[in-house]
Design brief:
Blueprint (H helix, E strand, L loop, with lengths): L1 H9 L3 H12 L6 E2 L6 E5 H8 L3 H15 L3 E6 L12 E6 L1 E7 L4 E6 L4 H5 L11 E2 L1
Antiparallel strand pairs: 1-7, 2-6, 3-4, 5-6
Helix pairs in contact: 2-3, 3-4
C-alpha cells in the first residue's frame, strides 16, 4: 500500500499535504492506545503558519479549507491475487480515507485529525493490534 499512499499524496493540495505531514510528525509509535481508541492529532494555526511561512490569517484560512476537503480524499490500492489469503484470481480494490474525522475549531484556530485505522501502518510503520492483541500502538 505504500506506493498507493505516495500516489494518493500527489493528489492532495499543498495545504492538505502540510497538514498531513505536520500531523504525522506528531504521531508516536511508542504510545499505546486503549482498544477501540483512535489516534488524534491537533494542529494549530500558529504551527501551520510556521511550516508554511505565512501569516496567521492565511494559516487560519488554509486550515479551515484543507479540513473541508481532506476528509473526502481517498486512497485506492489493489491487492494482487498472489498476496491474498483467498483463492481469488482477481485483484482486490480497496479504498480508504486519509482521515476518519477532521474537526476545525472555529474561533480557536486549530484542527483535530482522527486517523483512519487501516492507514496507520503505512504512515508510521507499525501494525495495528487486532483480534487477540486489541492494543493499538501508534
Amino acid at each position: 500500500m505504500s506506493n498507493a499512499l505516495i500516489r494518493a499524496g500527489h493528489g492532495l493540495t499543498l495545504a492538505e499535504k502540510r497538514i498531513v505531514m505536520c500531523a504525522v510528525s506528531k504521531l508516536d509509535s511508542r504510545t499505546a492506545l486503549k482498544a477501540g481508541e483512535l489516534p488524534r492529532t491537533k494542529i494549530t494555526a500558529s504551527e501551520y503558519a510556521e511550516i508554511a511561512s505565512c501569516k496567521m490569517n492565511a494559516a487560519y484560512e488554509a486550515l479551515q479549507e484543507a479540513t473541508k476537503t481532506l476528509f473526502n480524499r481517498k486512497i485506492t490500492f489493489y491487492e494482487p491475487p498472489a498476496l491474498q489469503s483467498s483463492r481469488s484470481t482477481h485483484a482486490i480494490r480497496t479504498e480508504m480515507r486519509w482521515v476518519g474525522r477532521c474537526r476545525y475549531h472555529a474561533g480557536e484556530g486549530w484542527v483535530e485529525l482522527v486517523w483512519w485505522p487501516d492507514l496507520l501502518p503505512s504512515l508510521i510503520g507499525v501494525v495495528c493490534g487486532r483480534g487477540r492483541n486489541p492494543t493499538l500502538r501508534i
